[in-house]
């Protein structure tokens, strides 16, 4: 039922934030994340804060839109009372879980609350995640009519035995159908893939990548499978029923997807993300990597504003109780100190194509750049212009690059 919430200080019942959050707020983009914590079945690899119908303990999916709208209305008051300027939402992202298990009208109503309370910036990016088997053409048309601009389908693989190992329930042949329906509705399309599933060969992965490219999505994400403690997949591997993912094979898979996507005209802009053009990059996720502000709505959702991070009550029933009582759903928070914020800045910005301004690194980090170039991890041409950008090999070893930038 999702990873445990982090340690931190208790959040105040009124949700008010320290006065420091207002500093520089006008220069930071503002986005809204809406967590919809419901799934039809639990995938064996998933460690997200999601719940099937028998795990809800009295919480009802049918009540959720009203509860989320309650938090959205509360959030505006909290930000105003904390001294933050009014800022329209540049991006809105509905994630989960499976947001499209809710009726499309519920998602549109929640988006309407964001529009009413904050406004949407001109050309705002509004995305929902969806499983290929959780939407039909009428749903997608209703979402587009209601203000959504983009849908991200959890394709994961085109190979039946790989989908079975992941406990994914959709038929891979449905992917072209839902992509076509989304296109007909006027929505941009992103496809999510996972590589490194136990039993997945390099040829299996090539088949999935080729199938994804054939759909001509605007955007594609490819993530290495992570075996999280406490998941069904971790137990299967521990019992010897499935093989442990192979790091060398995963590296080969990453190189394959990057090569195939580049040949098809896609450009990487973050270690695990590619787009058909700069305009089709996920602006919402770029906000995370750039350290912008966002309010996370829903059970277990995390927010970040001006160096303060907080998180909501985890279970839908606990979340619902707090909303009904008129108190903030936030249960914990942390105020990030200077060194922590710098570490996160380097960690996140090193992952994106626009990179890090080398002049902003500490002395040791600047001195490390020459060795990283010599090792083929950092692009030499970009570095000469003052920006640290990872090569393909550097992307494979991004965590090691960051350690050298921070520890030198």
Automatic annotation (TrEMBL):
It is found in: Cytoplasm. Pfam families: Radical_SAM. It comes from the Bacteria. Keywords: 4Fe-4S, Chaperone, Cytoplasm, Heme, Iron, Iron-sulfur, Metal-binding, S-adenosyl-L-methionine. Residues 24-267 form the Radical SAM core domain. Probably acts as a heme chaperone, transferring heme to an unknown acceptor. Binds one molecule of heme per monomer, possibly covalently. Binds 1 [4Fe-4S] cluster. The cluster is coordinated with 3 cysteines and an exchangeable S-adenosyl-L-methionine. Belongs to the anaerobic coproporphyrinogen-III oxidase family. HemW subfamily. This is Heme chaperone HemW. It comes from Agromyces lapidis.
């Amino acid at each position: 039922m999702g990873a445990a919430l982090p340690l931190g200080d208790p959040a105040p019942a009124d949700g008010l934030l320290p006065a420091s959050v207002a500093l520089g707020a006008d220069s930071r983009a503002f986005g809204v994340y809406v967590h919809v914590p419901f799934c039809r079945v639990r995938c064996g690899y998933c460690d997200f804060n999601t719940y099937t119908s028998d795990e809800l303990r009295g919480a009802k999916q049918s009540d959720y839109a009203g509860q989320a709208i309650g938090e959205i209305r509360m959030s505006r008051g909290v930000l105003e009372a904390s001294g933050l300027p009014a800022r329209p939402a540049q991006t809105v992202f509905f994630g989960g879980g499976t947001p499209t298990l809710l009726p499309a009208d519920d998602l549109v109503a929640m988006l309407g609350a964001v529009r009413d309370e904050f406004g949407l910036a001109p050309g705002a990016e509004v995305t929902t995640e969806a499983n290929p088997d959780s939407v039909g053409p009428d749903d997608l048309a209703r979402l587009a009519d209601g203000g959504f601009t983009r849908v991200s389908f959890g394709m994961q693989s085109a190979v039946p035995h790989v989908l079975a190992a992941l406990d994914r329930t959709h038929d891979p042949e449905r992917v072209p159908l839902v992509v076509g329906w989304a296109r007909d509705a006027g929505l941009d399309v992103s496809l999510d893939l996972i590589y490194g599933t136990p039993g997945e060969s390099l040829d299996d992965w090539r088949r999935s990548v080729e199938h994804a490219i054939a759909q001509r999505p605007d955007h594609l994400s490819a993530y290495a499978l992570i075996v999280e403690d406490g998941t069904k997949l971790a137990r299967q591997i521990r019992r010897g029923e499935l093989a442990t993912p192979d790091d060398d094979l995963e590296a080969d898979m990453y190189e394959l997807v990057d090569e195939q996507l580049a040949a098809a005209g896609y450009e990487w802009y973050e270690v695990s993300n590619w787009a058909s053009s700069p305009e089709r990059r996920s602006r919402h996720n770029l906000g995370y990597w750039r350290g912008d502000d966002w309010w996370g709505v829903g059970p277990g959702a995390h927010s970040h504003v001006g160096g303060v991070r907080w998180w909501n009550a985890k279970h839908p029933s606990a979340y619902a109780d707090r909303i009904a009582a008129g108190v903030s759903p936030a249960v914990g928070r942390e105020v990030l100190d200077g060194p922590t914020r710098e570490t996160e800045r380097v960690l996140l910005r090193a992952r994106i194509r626009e990179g890090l301004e080398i002049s902003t690194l500490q002395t040791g980090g600047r001195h490390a750049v020459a060795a990283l170039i010599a090792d083929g991890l950092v692009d030499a041409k970009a570095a000469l212009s003052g920006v640290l950008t990872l090569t393909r090999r550097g992307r494979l070893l991004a965590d090691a690059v960051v350690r050298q930038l921070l520890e030198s």
